Input
Amino acid sequence: MVRLLYISKTNGGFNSDGIESILASARKNNEKMDVTGMLCFSHKYFMQCLEGDRDNVNKIYHQIANDERHSDIVILQYSEIFTRDFSEWSMGYVPDTSITKELNLKYSNTAEFQPYLMAGESAHQFLLSLRDSLPSI
Output
Protein backbone atom coordinates (compact mmCIF):
# COMPACT_ATOMS: atom_id res chain seq x y z
CA MET A 1 0.00 0.00 0.00
CA VAL A 2 0.95 3.64 -0.48
CA ARG A 3 -0.04 7.04 0.84
CA LEU A 4 -0.10 10.04 -1.49
CA LEU A 5 -0.62 13.54 -0.13
CA TYR A 6 -0.94 16.44 -2.56
CA ILE A 7 -2.01 20.06 -2.57
CA SER A 8 -3.42 22.16 -5.36
CA LYS A 9 -5.00 25.52 -6.00
CA THR A 10 -8.63 25.69 -6.99
CA ASN A 11 -9.57 27.24 -10.28
CA GLY A 12 -12.52 28.94 -8.59
CA GLY A 13 -16.19 28.35 -8.98
CA PHE A 14 -16.60 26.02 -6.01
CA ASN A 15 -19.55 26.23 -3.71
CA SER A 16 -20.95 23.71 -1.22
CA ASP A 17 -22.94 21.93 -3.96
CA GLY A 18 -19.82 21.56 -6.10
CA ILE A 19 -17.82 20.10 -3.22
CA GLU A 20 -20.67 17.73 -2.30
CA SER A 21 -20.74 16.50 -5.90
CA ILE A 22 -16.97 15.88 -5.85
CA LEU A 23 -17.24 14.06 -2.52
CA ALA A 24 -20.12 11.84 -3.65
CA SER A 25 -18.21 10.83 -6.77
CA ALA A 26 -14.92 10.30 -4.87
CA ARG A 27 -16.58 8.21 -2.18
CA LYS A 28 -18.30 5.99 -4.73
CA ASN A 29 -15.20 5.50 -6.90
CA ASN A 30 -12.75 5.17 -4.01
CA GLU A 31 -14.87 2.54 -2.30
CA LYS A 32 -14.88 0.44 -5.48
CA MET A 33 -11.07 0.65 -5.58
CA ASP A 34 -10.51 0.19 -1.81
CA VAL A 35 -8.90 3.63 -1.59
CA THR A 36 -9.35 5.66 1.57
CA GLY A 37 -8.40 9.21 2.45
CA MET A 38 -9.28 12.72 3.43
CA LEU A 39 -9.95 15.95 1.53
CA CYS A 40 -9.33 19.35 3.09
CA PHE A 41 -10.78 22.28 1.15
CA SER A 42 -10.65 26.02 1.50
CA HIS A 43 -11.85 28.47 -1.08
CA LYS A 44 -8.32 28.63 -2.48
CA TYR A 45 -6.74 25.23 -1.86
CA PHE A 46 -7.22 21.49 -1.85
CA MET A 47 -5.18 19.19 0.35
CA GLN A 48 -5.88 15.51 -0.12
CA CYS A 49 -4.50 12.24 1.17
CA LEU A 50 -5.14 8.98 -0.69
CA GLU A 51 -4.26 5.53 0.68
CA GLY A 52 -4.48 2.11 -0.90
CA ASP A 53 -3.06 -0.12 -3.59
CA ARG A 54 -0.29 1.65 -5.53
CA ASP A 55 -1.95 1.24 -8.93
CA ASN A 56 -5.34 2.46 -7.68
CA VAL A 57 -3.91 5.47 -5.85
CA ASN A 58 -1.83 6.39 -8.91
CA LYS A 59 -4.86 6.06 -11.18
CA ILE A 60 -6.96 8.36 -8.99
CA TYR A 61 -4.14 10.88 -8.68
CA HIS A 62 -3.67 11.03 -12.47
CA GLN A 63 -7.40 11.71 -12.88
CA ILE A 64 -7.09 14.56 -10.37
CA ALA A 65 -3.95 15.91 -12.04
CA ASN A 66 -5.84 16.12 -15.34
CA ASP A 67 -8.90 17.76 -13.76
CA GLU A 68 -9.21 21.40 -14.84
CA ARG A 69 -10.50 22.37 -11.38
CA HIS A 70 -6.95 21.93 -10.01
CA SER A 71 -3.80 23.91 -10.78
CA ASP A 72 -0.28 24.06 -9.36
CA ILE A 73 -0.46 20.50 -8.03
CA VAL A 74 2.38 19.53 -5.70
CA ILE A 75 2.93 16.08 -4.21
CA LEU A 76 3.99 16.63 -0.61
CA GLN A 77 4.34 12.98 0.34
CA TYR A 78 4.33 9.63 -1.43
CA SER A 79 5.36 6.62 0.61
CA GLU A 80 4.81 2.95 1.21
CA ILE A 81 2.69 2.28 4.28
CA PHE A 82 1.93 -0.69 6.51
CA THR A 83 -1.42 0.57 7.80
CA ARG A 84 -3.93 3.19 6.74
CA ASP A 85 -4.48 6.35 8.74
CA PHE A 86 -7.87 7.04 7.16
CA SER A 87 -9.31 3.52 6.94
CA GLU A 88 -12.75 4.63 8.15
CA TRP A 89 -13.23 7.04 5.24
CA SER A 90 -13.70 6.35 1.55
CA MET A 91 -13.16 10.12 1.51
CA GLY A 92 -13.34 12.17 4.68
CA TYR A 93 -14.00 15.87 4.24
CA VAL A 94 -12.78 18.86 6.22
CA PRO A 95 -14.33 22.22 5.33
CA ASP A 96 -12.33 25.37 5.92
CA THR A 97 -14.56 26.20 8.89
CA SER A 98 -12.93 23.31 10.79
CA ILE A 99 -9.41 24.61 10.20
CA THR A 100 -8.38 26.68 13.18
CA LYS A 101 -5.71 29.29 13.65
CA GLU A 102 -4.14 27.15 16.39
CA LEU A 103 -3.95 24.09 14.15
CA ASN A 104 -2.39 26.09 11.34
CA LEU A 105 0.22 27.53 13.69
CA LYS A 106 1.00 24.07 15.04
CA TYR A 107 1.91 22.66 11.62
CA SER A 108 3.01 25.68 9.59
CA ASN A 109 4.55 29.11 9.99
CA THR A 110 1.31 31.05 9.56
CA ALA A 111 -2.12 31.22 11.21
CA GLU A 112 -3.79 31.01 7.79
CA PHE A 113 -4.31 27.76 5.90
CA GLN A 114 -1.39 27.96 3.48
CA PRO A 115 -0.63 24.34 2.48
CA TYR A 116 2.15 25.38 0.11
CA LEU A 117 4.13 26.42 3.18
CA MET A 118 3.83 22.99 4.82
CA ALA A 119 6.34 20.17 4.62
CA GLY A 120 5.02 16.73 3.71
CA GLU A 121 5.10 15.31 7.23
CA SER A 122 3.60 18.50 8.68
CA ALA A 123 0.70 18.23 6.22
CA HIS A 124 0.22 14.56 7.14
CA GLN A 125 0.16 15.36 10.87
CA PHE A 126 -2.21 18.28 10.18
CA LEU A 127 -4.67 15.90 8.50
CA LEU A 128 -4.34 13.39 11.35
CA SER A 129 -5.20 16.12 13.86
CA LEU A 130 -8.24 17.06 11.79
CA ARG A 131 -9.24 13.40 11.51
CA ASP A 132 -9.18 13.01 15.26
CA SER A 133 -11.50 15.98 15.69
CA LEU A 134 -14.17 14.81 13.22
CA PRO A 135 -16.71 11.97 13.18
CA SER A 136 -16.17 9.03 10.83
CA ILE A 137 -18.00 9.01 7.53
Q: What stands out?
A: Residues 16-32 form the longest helix (17 residues). The two ends are 21 Å apart (CA to CA). The chain is about 35% helix and 30% strand. The mean pLDDT is 86.
